[in-house]
Amino acid sequence: MNSLWTSEEAEQCKDELDLRVYSSRLLGRDKTLVLHGGGNTSVKIDEQNILGETETILYVKGSGWDLEFIERPGFSPVRLNHLVRLAELETLSDSQMVNELKTHMTNASAPTPSVEAILHAILPYKYVDHTHADSLVTITNTPNGLNRIKDIYGDKVVILPYCMPGFDLARLCATEFPKQVNDNTIGMVLMNHGIFSFGETAKESYERMISLVSMAESYIKQNKAWTILSSNKEVDDGKSHVQKISELRSDISKHAKKPMLVSFNSGLKNLDFVNREDLGDISQEGPATPDHVIRTKRLPMLGMDVDAYVQEYTKYFKAHESSAKQALSMLDPTPRVILDHELGVGTVGATAKETAIIADIYDHTIDVITRATRLGEYRALPAKDIFDVEYWELEQAKLKKSGASPEFMGEVVLITGAASGIGLACVNSFLARGAAVIGLDINDAVESLEQQPAYLGISCDVSIRQHVELALEKAVRHFGGIDMLILNAGIFPKSQNIYALSDESWREVMQINLDSNLMLMREAYPLLKIAPNGGRVVMMGSKNVLAPGPGAAAYSVAKAGINQLARVAALEWGQDNIRVNTLHPDAVFDTGIWTDEVLNSRAESYGLSVDEYKRKNILKTEVSSHDVAELVAEMCGKLFAKTTGAQLPVDGGNDRVI
After folding, report:
1. Which pLDDT score, from 0 to 100, does residue 326 have?
2. Which of 22, 555, 606, 613 is catalytic?
3. Fewer CB within 10 Å of terminal CB in the chain, N or C?
4. Considering the domain 242-399, what is its CATH architecture?
């Protein structure tokens, strides 16, 4: 490992807490040290209280903060003396501990302190760093891990056996640390858990962490266990897995009793791992470190048999719940990681962010398992220890406090014509309601509209079958299926009277505005049919369906065609719990076709100002892309749950339509 510390950056820090923030971010920047909220850091600072008395305050990472992005408010200030005295107690429940931590902070608005606050408090060093370094847990997750750690570090570290995080671990440390500490001690190893470093300065503590982890990495390399891949052969079966993945997602959602997302990664490392001959053994040992179980569950699912996995998980829960200190509610019994020899590594979550985090964690778990196996054998903690963390009192309390979920959480919407206008507005409306969004557009700007896990933009000509098939394959591998289909893509050709309309112009409009929608509906139908909450389709019609105008024959006929297509689909697909509805927007002026030049020209032809022209409807209101998109989203929600085959104008009231 290399130290990322620079004097130039450190000199920008104005005090000890700033330095704590800086070195914490350096740790968080390295994913082989901490992942997604893992690890914790602290600093002890003498401060004057409101009474003018000097007291030592422990600034420790607050719950919910990620070391990579932590800021000053992310550290919770707790009175050190009280924490040290807590460590002298014989017992302290989790809820009591949290209460003591929160009631002895000096800032009531600070986040809840880390559950390791007491442990940080009793370590007699100003700066304390704690990570779950991949290389360290690789070595400790072997049968003779203890002896290996002793060989690597000698008297540089205090070694503690695995213990449940929180008060129990702090109590163990209070007893054992003084027995082992010596003048050479610069860190502490928690078996099967992680590693601590400490020092009198932020730089010293940070660089000791880098040094200790580097020693573990060197040991793995010296023992020829560093290599991950067993083969460099790319695997591509050339098959479409759209239906297989969608049916898997449907099955998982059924058992979870809510829509879930499924994402598969078939990269070289993942395919190499899932095709190992010993996969059935090494993958069923348990997580690399206990805190991962909150995200990944104890074991991944091998293959696609969700029923069998659910039965095994239920047995696991029943086998250990009797030893719990309080009554437990079983978490949903579905897998969070799936290992399939064709598809690679799949991850399951209620949100796209969750699936991405789990994928990241398991990517590192593959490294740990592979290297530990090369050292001789990967052996995780017993199931009982993992269960205790998975059903930790503090985690159960979080479940009870969780509020209402966003309306479309766990659901997937595909939107065509997503790069601009109404399509782009639809992307924003569905993201705001918690959906995972797939945006298709011939404009490749669609790929970079949003930089968040819940959005996947795919450059695609929806009039070309191969493009559509590839887009669906990519989309389903990314999110697991499609629940909602918003057919918005289309072109508005220049005005032409029928006598001047060429065959080429007619066919182009029909191909894009009508034929492509038929193709998408047909290809998406098997996916919509198994959508957990029922499939939904919203077709973007036009005022021209009900009140056509001269010069727009091709456009009007194509829109009338998709309107009829939607009505027939509503009749045919109702038995499959798929509802199909149509919106007829008009005079939506914040779209690409309405340039300032066109607006000024049209307004002038009516003898109106541009603002008056925009409000040239019965309600004298302007209709925006956002207005249309919000109604599109509502039509996919509970409000319209019993409506199909409907046509709704979004035009402010048009006398010809009415």
Report:
1. 81
2. 555
3. C
4. 3-Layer(aba) Sandwich (3.40)
Structure tokens at 196: 């601590």
pLDDT of residue 512: 94
Domains 242-399 and 412-588+623-650 share a fold: no
Q: Is the dihedral of CA 606, 609, 614, 620 positive or negative?
A: negative
CA dist list (Å): 243 to 48, 248, 260, 480, 482: 65, 8, 16, 9, 11
DSSP letter at 417 equals: S
**What residue segments make up the domains of the chain, in order of their start?**
7-222, 242-399, 412-588+623-650
Q: What is the pLDDT of residue 395?
A: 73
Instruction: CATH number for 412-588+623-650: choose from 3.30.70.1070, 3.40.50.720, 3.40.47.10, 3.30.1360.120.
Output: 3.40.50.720
How would you classify the pairing of strands 54-61 and 75-79? antiparallel
Position 496 scores a pLDDT of: 87
232, 328 contact by CB (below 8 A): no
Q: Is 172 exposed, middle or buried (0-12, 13-18, 19+ CB in 10 A)?
A: middle
User: Is residue 610 within 8 Å of 603, Cβ to Cβ?
Assistant: yes
For 519, which DSSP code? H
Taking CA atoms, 12 is separated from 19, 25, 74, 126, 208, in Å, by 9, 14, 19, 20, 22
First to last CA, the chain: 71
Which amino acid is present at 582?
Answer: T
Residue 534: which residues within 8 A CB-CB, separation 6 or more? Answer: 577, 578, 579
- Does residue 252 contact residue 335 with C-beta atoms inside 8 Å? yes
CA distance 61 to 42: 6
Average pLDDT, consecutive stretches of 10 residues, N- to C-terminus, the chain (658 residues)? 95 97 97 93 96 97 95 98 96 94 96 96 98 98 97 97 95 96 97 97 98 98 94 68 96 97 96 96 96 96 98 97 86 97 96 97 98 97 95 75 86 97 97 98 96 97 95 97 96 88 93 95 97 97 91 93 97 98 94 79 86 93 96 97 97 93
Q: Look-up: residue for tokens 């490992």?
A: 1
Distance of alpha carbon 343 from alpha carbon 345, whole angstroms = 7
pTM: 0.93
- Which residue has tokens 């892309």? 625
Q: Which amino acid is it at 297? A: K
User: 7-222 in CATH: which number?
Assistant: 3.40.225.10
DSSP string, 445-508: GGGGS--STTEEEEE--TTSHHHHHHHHHHHHHHHS--SEEEE-----PPPB-GGG--HHHHHH
Q: What does the alpha-carbon distance between residue 516 and residue 509 come to, in Å, rounded to a whole number?
A: 10
Residue 511 to residue 508: CA distance in whole angstroms: 5
Please tell me whether residue 38 adopts helix, strand or coil conformation: coil
Q: Which of 43, 5, 3, 1 is nearest to 22 (CA)?
A: 5
Beta strands 261-265 and 344-349 are: antiparallel
Residue 233 CA: distances (Å) to CA of 266, 275, 602, 645: 13, 12, 62, 51
Q: Is 499 a catalytic residue?
A: no
Residue (of 88, 22, 94) closest to 63 by Cα position: 94
